């Protein structure tokens, strides 16, 4: 059989195949939470975590090795709560570092003198209520942006924390 090739049909087929090849390779732009952004490598004595986007390196012996590396905040959270989320730091009277991390799910994590305290937090009006084990701390955000914490209203030993993340 002798068929005559129609140039219009051949051109349409070539264009469609080219379009299909382009669409197959197309993808959305990478989100901030890229897969494979973080790489880890371990030796006999330690591990290293590398953020391939920024080049920052954490060693397993570093104090903040286990802390979250990205501070991603959800979008449906009121602004006054967003301002509370993240990590806060201060030092006690002895010069020991105190850290507090408030998560969007209501979890709180405090580190004082090397001891980790897991708890919960919530807001009550203008105040913040932190509950760790059997202790309850009250707090508020001052006009200068620091968080002040205390155990009871007549407590003169108030802790002032500065937001770091």
Overall description:
- The chain has helices at residues 7-25, 79-82, and strands at 38-42, 47-51, 57-59, 86-91, 97-102, 107-112, 115-124, 127-132, 135-141, 147-150, 159-163.
- With 165 residues, it is mainly beta.
- The protein has a domain at 74-163: Lipocalin.
- The strands form two sheets. An eight-stranded antiparallel beta barrel has the order 4-5-6-7-8-9-10-11. A three-stranded antiparallel sheet has the order 1-2-3, with no helix packed on it.
- The termini are far apart.
List strands and helices in order, with pairings.
Layout: H1 7-25, E1 38-42, E2 47-51, E3 57-59, H2 79-82, E4 86-91, E5 97-102, E6 107-112, E7 115-124, E8 127-132, E9 135-141, E10 147-150, E11 159-163
Antiparallel strand pairs: 1-2, 2-3, 4-5, 4-11, 5-6, 6-7, 7-8, 8-9, 9-10, 10-11
Calculate the terminal CA-CA distance, rounded to whole Å. Answer: 75 Å
Q: What is the CATH architecture assignment of the domain at 74-163?
A: Beta Barrel
Please state the structural category: mainly beta
Describe the largest sheet.
8 strands, antiparallel, barrel
Shape: elongated
Q: What is the CATH first-level class name of the domain at 74-163? A: Mainly Beta
Helical content, roughly?
10-25%
Q: What's the pLDDT, averaged over the residues?
A: 79
Give the helix tally.
Answer: 2
| Unreliable stretches | none
Placed side by side, the strands forming the largest sheet appear as 4-5-6-7-8-9-10-11
Q: Could you tell me the strand content as a percent range?
A: 35-45%
Give the CATH topology of the domain at 74-163: Lipocalin
> What is the string of SSEs from the N terminus onward?
HEEEHEEEEEEEE
